[in-house]
């Protein structure tokens, strides 16, 4: 009999079909899931959805949560560690695409690409009108909040644009030629572009607050490819509306996909719908790693990217 797996997410093809051929995939929305709570050893979800603690408590045999993504802010990791439940993410697979998105958003807001496209499509260019000048990336100071794998990859890309690199990290790190700052406020005071790449945890919730935005100033830009919760969103919207910062490029928000309607009224933001890792290549690689984690666990091995195994 095929191993039942509780699913909160689906995987890109052909990996999804390969999983369905090997295992019995049962959606959490299926009434059958409630009848089989005592059977599931594996649950499959994504970084945005996670899995509620109430679900974990209802699954007495749960031993692996396979996450299609790197976000774990919607998973109670302490509870999982206490119950010896592996939480296995797709760590490392999406680094390059998310870093690319950060630089793409930086280009979009400094060069005002959104307004440029609207300008052409509306016919204003054909009417002889002109756009305000944008800003060059060369020589600008990019401040990276969080120097994990993605933060470092962002810095490496920014170097190719001849930007100066600074960063703040929760633990001490150093990179030759990059400037380290002791607080996010100090980093923001220095930066022209503040890129948020720090993991979303209880400690980092609302990290980019009014004091950071005030330090960034009227000519500064915010780019967020981390999680919406890392920024005090009300403070960000207030700053954008008051133009006390120059603009923002955002891939992540609170309450996705039903984001605050105030964003839609702004002309100094470039918005994309949480698609930092949304390429065929990366989503396929992510799905393959999810499958690898499940296959390994059910073969009696430790999932390759378990982040809770060290606590067992």
From TrEMBL:
Give the keywords, sorted: NAD, NADP, Oxidoreductase
Q: Is this entry keyworded Oxidoreductase?
A: yes
Gene3D superfamilies documented for this protein:
NAD(P)-binding Rossmann-like Domain
Is-annotated flag, keyword Transmembrane?
A: no
| Gene Ontology CC terms | cytosol
InterPro entries named in the record: D-isomer_2-hydroxyacid_DH (IPR050223), D-isomer_2_OHA_DH_cat_dom (IPR006139), D-isomer_DH_CS1 (IPR029752), D-isomer_DH_NAD-bd (IPR006140), NAD(P)-bd_dom_sf (IPR036291)
Instruction: Tell me where in this chain the D-isomer specific 2-hydroxyacid dehydrogenase catalytic domain is found.
Output: 27-306
Q: Name one GO molecular function term.
A: NAD binding
Which domain of life does this protein belong to?
Bacteria
Q: Which residues form the D-isomer specific 2-hydroxyacid dehydrogenase NAD-binding domain?
A: 103-276
The family this protein is said to belong to: Belongs to the D-isomer specific 2-hydroxyacid dehydrogenase family.
Listed PANTHER family: 2-HYDROXYACID DEHYDROGENASE YGL185C-RELATED, 2-HYDROXYACID DEHYDROGENASE-RELATED
What name does the UniProt record give this protein?
A: Lactate dehydrogenase
What is the native source organism of this protein?
Answer: Pelagibacterium luteolum
């Amino acid at each position: 009999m095929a191993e039942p797996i509780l699913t909160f997410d689906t995987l890109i093809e052909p990996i999804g079909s390969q999983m369905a051929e090997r295992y019995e995939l049962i959606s959490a929305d299926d009434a059958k899931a409630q009848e089989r709570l005592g059977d599931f050893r594996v649950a499959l979800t994504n970084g945005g959805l996670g899995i509620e603690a109430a679900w974990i408590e209802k699954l007495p045999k749960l031993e692996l949560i396979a996450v299609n993504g790197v976000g774990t802010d919607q998973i109670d990791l302490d509870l999982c560690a206490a119950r010896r439940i592996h939480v296995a993410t797709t760590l490392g697979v999406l680094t390059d695409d998310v870093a690319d998105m950060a630089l793409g958003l930086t280009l979009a807001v400094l060069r005002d690409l959104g307004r440029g496209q609207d300008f052409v499509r509306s016919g204003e260019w054909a009417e002889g009108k002109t756009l305000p000048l944008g800003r060059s990336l060369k020589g600008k100071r990019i401040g990276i909040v969080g120097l994990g794998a993605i933060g470092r990859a962002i810095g490496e890309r920014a170097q190719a644009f001849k930007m100066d690199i600074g960063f703040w990290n929760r633990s001490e790190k150093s990179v030759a030629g990059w400037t380290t700052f002791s607080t996010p406020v100090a980093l923001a005071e220095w930066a022209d572009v503040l890129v948020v790449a720090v993991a979303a945890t209880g400690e980092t919730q609302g990290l980019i607050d009014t004091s950071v935005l005030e330090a960034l100033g009227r000519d500064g830009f915010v780019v967020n490819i981390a999680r919406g919760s890392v920024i005090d969103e009300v403070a960000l919207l207030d700053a954008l509306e008051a133009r006390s910062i120059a603009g923002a490029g955002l891939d992540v928000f609170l309450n996705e996909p039903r984001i605050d309607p105030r964003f839609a009224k702004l002309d100094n933001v470039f918005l994309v719908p949480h698609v930092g890792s949304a390429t065929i290549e990366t989503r396929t690689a992510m799905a393959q790693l999810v499958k690898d984690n499940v296959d390994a666990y059910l073969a009696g091995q430790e999932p390759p990217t378990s982040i809770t195994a060290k606590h067992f």
